[in-house]
Amino acid sequence: MKKQLSLVLIFVVLFMGLSGCIFKGNDNATPSSGQVAPEKSVSELVVLNNIPSDFEYLGNKSLNADYVSKNFVKAENVTEAAEGIYKNETLDYYITAIKFSDTASAESFLTDYKGTFKALKNNDTFQIVKFNGHEATRALSHSTVGGTEVSRYKYFWNNDNQVFIIAGNSNDSYVGLDFAMATGY
Fold first, then answer.
1. DSSP secondary structure letters along 121-151
2. What's this model's pTM, rounded to 2 decimal places?
3. How confident is the model at residue 3 (pLDDT cuts 50, 70, 90)?
């Protein structure tokens, strides 16, 4: 009887282990929530392989933590940052990638960055958009150009300890989304 009970317990433990209930799986597996950015320098992450149509890549520049803090929001634990610059006849677009020492710092940065946007009356300031297997925030703001108020869109998200920010001067939200999707992350 004890032998049968032992055998049953062994099979139960073995079955639970194979189903993943006890033994830990592969920690290096890619999460299903999106593609993990490879261990590249951020200056490589801002160079797109598939540039949206009619745009050309002008180059990139390295940024430091002071620049990030002055132009976005106070940033702590920045290890590396860069900005890719793209242009067509009438529009300029910028892809900023910021690498932090840890994911918590990246998430904290994005929370603080969201707080810099003026809340719009119709509550359209932020929308969640999905692309490349993850969610990102689309922020809407307004600028005055030539005496006319125009919409401007920014997209931002983090991929582990890396933050991506897409900004440009188009009033068409899909232009920025094309750039966000072209990052692949």
1. TTS-SEEEEEETTEEEEEEEEEEEETTEEEE
2. 0.78
3. low
